Structure to design on (84 residues):
């Protein structure tokens, strides 16, 4: 099973880059019909994770995926699942 992964540690302080990378990841998964992507905002203060969740809740993005799962063992990781 193919899976895409985006680690946001390197770009956590580059606002526009975060949005671009997230959108690219989601659209790439849809285009390639990949069932799941992993997003790693990291643990930190939780602000980056909140930003990622706000991005995923945008109506234009939310229409592209099925659900978001939070990793029960790792607070700093999210899984976005698609139903193609």
């Amino acid at each position: 099973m193919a899976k895409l992964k985006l680690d946001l540690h390197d770009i956590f302080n580059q606002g526009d880059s975060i949005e671009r990378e997230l959108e690219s990841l989601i659209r790439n998964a849809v285009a390639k019909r990949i069932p799941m992507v992993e997003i790693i905002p990291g643990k930190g203060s939780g602000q980056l994770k909140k930003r990622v969740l706000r991005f995923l809740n945008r109506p234009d993005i939310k229409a592209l995926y099925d659900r978001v799962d939070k990793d029960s063992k790792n607070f700093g990781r999210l899984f976005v699942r698609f139903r193609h």
User: Anything to note?
Assistant: The chain has three helices and four strands.
